[in-house]
Hints:
Layout: H1 16-22, E1 26-31, H2 39-54, E2 59-64, H3 72-80, E3 86-90, H4 99-104, H5 113-120, H6 123-133, E4 137-152, E5 167-170, H7 174-182, E6 186-189, H8 195-200, E7 206-209, H9 211-216, H10 219-222, E8 225-241, H11 242-245, H12 250-284, E9 288-290, H13 296-300, H14 303-309, H15 313-324
Parallel strand pairs: 1-2, 1-3, 5-6, 8-9
Antiparallel strand pairs: 3-8, 4-7, 4-8
Amino acid sequence: MTRTLLVCGTILAGGASAAAAADCEVTLRSADTHPNGYPTVEAVRWMGEQVKEKSQGRICVEVFPASELGEEKDAIEQTQFGVIDMVRASFGPFNNLVPETQIVSLPYIFRSAEHMHHVMDGPIGEQIAQGFAQHDLVVLGYYDGGARSFYNSKHPIKSVDDLKGMKFRVMQSDVFVDMMSALGANATPMPYGEVYSSIQTGVIDGAENNQPSYDTSGHAEVAKFYTLDEHLIMPEVLAVSKISWDKLSPEDQALLKEVGAASVPVMRELWNAKVAESEAAVEEGGAEIVRDIDKQPFIDAMAPVYEKYVSTPEAKELVEKIRATE
């Protein structure tokens, strides 16, 4: 008997993907906010190919990009309830749900992307995965969210003073809101899909994100000034619903874990190539990238953010562990 883990309780009618899914005993539906071709989307597709091959066609992964299954926050909630089987999401929306994600979402907590990889691929990553498990999400791996930087439609940002009074979209996270306040700017939490029109109409002056997102979202068209302040090097998570997970056999669970972990270096290789491609594309399109910037004043401005979120012994211990990781 064919067993399909369904999205919204229905099988999509028609089309090649629906026909392919019908050939599988189990079809896992995976949500992503990014478009086709984006490293996270393609890494999960690669994972799906591996799962199908290694399960001899029994298990399929069907990826829904470009927020087809809802914006990030909604997709996360649907995955927790088992309506969606898998989700790739940034740590930002989890900050108010999984306390450990707040610490690794702090500005300038990571020295580099390599430092972040070493932290998330080791015992600290395992500790954070336990936090996700308490909210019915099984971590398959940690992807790259790149280095997030500021961009806007008004003027180049070369110092902290250039941010004063400006309105920036941030993810729906208290850490992000407090970060903007510490820099003298105004935070406007909103879904990713609303950013383009909000900049275009002047509801906000800009946003902050990595270079591939700045490029593929079209935000470079309406916000021409991008500053490489790299205030956040934030991990992302690929997770499966506990409800969907519990329907799998132990052998299939082990396979999903194995292939999920194997997709991480694939994603990171795709990511590095995409960063270089996006940087060239936005400059060719007329965006101005500010590279020569003194980050120390930005780092110094984060003191009240750390004071607020690193106040418990557990949080202080986690920060020390991260900083001690080579």
